Amino acid sequence: MRIAVLGSGTIGTALVRAALSSGHRVIGTGRSERTLERVKSLGAEATRNNEEAIASSELVVVSVKPQHFPEMVSSVSSDLWIGRTVVSVMAGVRLETLRRIMRGAEVFRAMPNVNSTVGKSATALTGEGERRGEVDSLFRTVGVTYWVQEELMDVWTALVGSGPAFVSELVDGLVLGAVASGMSRELAYSAVLDMLEGTIANLRAHRGHPLELRDNVTTPAGTTIAGLKVMERRLVKSAMMETIEAASRRAARLGKVIDEKISREISERK
Ligand SMILES: NC(=O)C1=CN([C@@H]2O[C@H](COP(=O)(O)OP(=O)(O)OC[C@H]3O[C@@H](n4cnc5c(N)ncnc54)[C@H](O)[C@@H]3O)[C@@H](O)[C@H]2O)C=CC1
Ligand SMILES: O=C(O)[C@@H]1CCC=N1
């Protein structure tokens, strides 16, 4: 298949790589010379011209930032979408919005995460169409896939899309705590990553509630309960809950704002 990736940034580049590794022919677009050179160095074609990329491809991945989407689609002739399969990885932007601007295309949404750059994304997919299998295969090249109802995309975006940033903040906090207690940053960082990997393996092996693992670690009058008391006093769990809710609300808001811009764009075209 011939695949176009519109906006070859962090996620777009991971998908260019994935598509090439699956034997597809790929054309990536970007605005800067640096982006185009990077795409070429991976073995794909590169162009600034989104229309040229769409016209020559069966499957089109839209991986520009949501804020750049209205401007990007306004520079593309609406006829070009007819008969294409389009997959948007943009946060918030709804299928309904995509269908309205890309008449005649079958549209899907995907929400991967930055771990796609190391083949370890968990990607939510939604939408319907004949190329569902090909869309699934593309994202399985960068990790695991889950087909979900569109209603879940905003919270998925918060939990899994933004999740690596939240976990990185927690990792940084743990490392700094160890540094404050006298450990070198380098040793602490390596130790935290090993501890996280082990904890994930343990949670997956036991498949119970995470609090069962917590209780197995927590010795009466021991070290863990001393730390847990601080987490409880500082409302860490509550903060994590609010973090996911805030990010999810932001995804929904972004979708609404982009939908309004696209509606204006369509009425101006008429
Ligand atoms: N970064 C992440 O962890 C995740 C990002 N996403 C979504 O993926 C999309 C891309 O995000 P990133 O890769 O982080 O952004 P990025 O900024 O790294 O990449 C976007 C690329 O699009 C290019 N671009 C902008 N307007 C363009 C146009 N008119 N034509 C061609 N190229 C254009 C930019 O120059 C840039 O290279 C966003 O919509 C975001 O919501 C989804 C999941 C995770
Ligand atoms: O922060 C963002 O909006 C994007 C979507 C998910 C991860 N990064």
Automatic annotation (TrEMBL):
Q: Which GO terms describe its molecular function?
A: pyrroline-5-carboxylate reductase activity
List locations, semicolon-separated.
Cytoplasm
The enzyme's main class, written as a single word, is: oxidoreductase
What EC number(s) are associated with this protein in UniProt?
A: 1.5.1.2
What pathway is this protein a component of? Amino-acid biosynthesis; L-proline biosynthesis; L-proline from L-glutamate 5-semialdehyde: step 1/1
What highest taxon heads this organism's lineage?
Answer: Archaea
A Gene Ontology biological process noted in the UniProt record is: L-proline biosynthetic process
Keyword annotations:
Amino-acid biosynthesis, Cytoplasm, NADP, Oxidoreductase, Proline biosynthesis
Which reaction is recorded as catalysed by this protein? Answer: L-proline + NAD(+) = (S)-1-pyrroline-5-carboxylate + NADH + 2 H(+); L-proline + NADP(+) = (S)-1-pyrroline-5-carboxylate + NADPH + 2 H(+)
The primary location reported for this protein is: cytoplasm
Classification via Gene3D superfamilies? NAD(P)-binding Rossmann-like Domain, ProC C-terminal domain-like
Q: Where is the Pyrroline-5-carboxylate reductase catalytic N-terminal domain?
A: 2-92
Question: What Pfam families does the record tag this protein with?
Answer: F420_oxidored (PF03807), P5CR_dimer (PF14748)
InterPro entries, per this entry?
6-PGluconate_DH-like_C_sf, NAD(P)-bd_dom_sf, P5C_Rdtase_cat_N, P5CR-like_CS, P5CR_dimer, Pyrroline-COOH_reductase
- Please give the GO cellular component terms listed in this UniProt entry: cytoplasm
What residues does the Pyrroline-5-carboxylate reductase dimerisation domain cover?
150-253
Residues that, per the record, bind NADPH: N50
Similarity field: Belongs to the pyrroline-5-carboxylate reductase family.
- Protein role: Catalyzes the reduction of 1-pyrroline-5-carboxylate (PCA) to L-proline.
Q: This chain belongs to which protein, by name? A: Pyrroline-5-carboxylate reductase
Q: Which organism is it from?
A: Metallosphaera yellowstonensis MK1
Q: Which gene encodes it?
A: proC
